[in-house]
């Protein structure tokens, strides 16, 4: 069984930010949470606005809460808004149900060892940066 | 008058999990609440995600809150979303208004002695497992 | 690295309740949380009062929050009350800082794989039951 | 006017962790907030417990909240506990009033450009690591 170390979290963040720079994204905030939903590392780039730490963490936390990337929450928010609103009530408002919260799995369909949440550009681009970050440590991204 | 004992709650949970295994459901979390809405027993299967205890409890609590299985709340969330949102405000966010929260009644139309909440698979399948759990103690399931 | 399974949590609870029966404790509520602070299993014995699930969980959660058994929190609450009050603010009121929240370690000084919280009798007796539960799965209890 | 950049925050964290390693501290969590009280970067070392991100952030936030290092809050918590409790009420529970939250000033008595919060060892040692981190970017530490 794998466990998400600080060293792994830093590699994920740096690779995600490198991806953002490469494809010309706006300033990003990247949060990496462990499997229990607790922050391991976070970086907010210069120019990334003040609530971004909570948004990035909330995407990652939402993914861990239900065991699916936050794209799944985004889809449910459209088909079953009452369900996603209620989840957020149960979570104390800590879930941001849009793409960009990606589970880190130990292989395809493998154990969840944490999640990455990114915000700052479009949700699709945020997610792409998260996927690049996870690839950098050789783990499998689950976008939901 | 019947009262929900720990022994009854354990039988419900074990039968619900057996049903889940039998019909091939994903890992489940099962919560059993007494008539006052307080947890008697809970089990979260390996691989069931981290917010599942609150989701399972929130389905069961919602059913007890309004005296109807949570399928009734789900229907109201679609026709009268403001009502279900307001209920959740009054409940401090503790209600999950989707199927899978089932009242335990002492006979058809009889007294409410508690509720079961299940989450992990589709809401319909979660509810089926709850019904099986309640049947195992010879009580009547009220899905709403 | 170990991970706390439902099967392990059930063994802990049943052994803790057996210990309570053996030494004549009042009705207990026992909660077992994983390393991330999320409930794996809970049982509330008949006659154990309605807030006991939150008390048992709050002892276990407090221990995990700071990485020390809740007896450590109890000592700090006496010497630095402002610190423990502030911790509870940061934790949304989820910490019960008295003995009876015991870390489950993988060997002496080893990794934390979860925590047990017990309430119902005196805090010292609650803790003794928790220690018995952890011994039943061959892990090391850390009372703080 | 100076502004706290991500690059500066990273240097502070890495220097604080290096100090911790040098003097043999337990695993630390280090948070760096900008002058507005918003997280810029955070690292939680392996083995640092799950509430540590909130504790580290809460020390730094408390310092910014009152314009004095959190050692000042700790002293007030002893002489005027009602004041510090009320501050925390106003702050939504986000203040941890013990040493280890250190203001980053632009020169002695200069402008506040952010704060560092550290937790994991004794409060005095946490503060020493924060001071080392601030020194590494040539700014002035204000411990309160």
From TrEMBL, chains A, B, C, D:
Transmembrane segments: none
InterPro entries tied to this protein: GlcG_carb_metab_protein, PduO/GlcC-like, PduO/GlcC-like_sf
Name of a matching Pfam family: HbpS-like
Record's protein name: Heme-binding protein
